[in-house]
Amino acid sequence: QVQLVESGGGLVQAGDSLRLSCAASGPTFSNTAMAMAWFRQTPGKEREFVATISYSGRTTYYADSTKGRFTISRDNAKNTVSLQMNSLKPEDTAVYYCAAAPGVTYYTQRNNYRYWGQGTQVTVSS
User: With a cut of 70, which residues of the chain have pLDDT below it?
Assistant: First the structure.
C-alpha cells in the first residue's frame, strides 16, 4: 500500500508563491520505483495534469499552463515530492492532488496513477 499526504495549500494573492509538499509512506512505496505527479481539480471539471517527475528526479514534465512558473522536485531519501508554485494566478485556484505510479519514467495521463492523496486547497485571489 501507498499513502500520500499533501500539505502547504492556502489562500494567497495573485503573484505570490506557494510550496506544496507530499509525504509518501507504506511498504509498497518503499520497495517500488514510483513516478510522482501533481494534478489539480476545480468543481465541475476533470482532474488535470500539472507536473510529473521520474523516479530518479532527472526528468520532469509540465502542463503548458504551469511551465516556467511551477517546479516539481523530489527527495527519495525522505519520500517527499514538492511543487514550488511561483507567479500564481487566480486560474491556479484548485484542489491539488499528489499521485504516484509504479515505474521509473514519468506519466502525464491520470489513468497511469494508481495512488492518490486527499488533496490540498489552493486559492489565489485577484
Answer: none
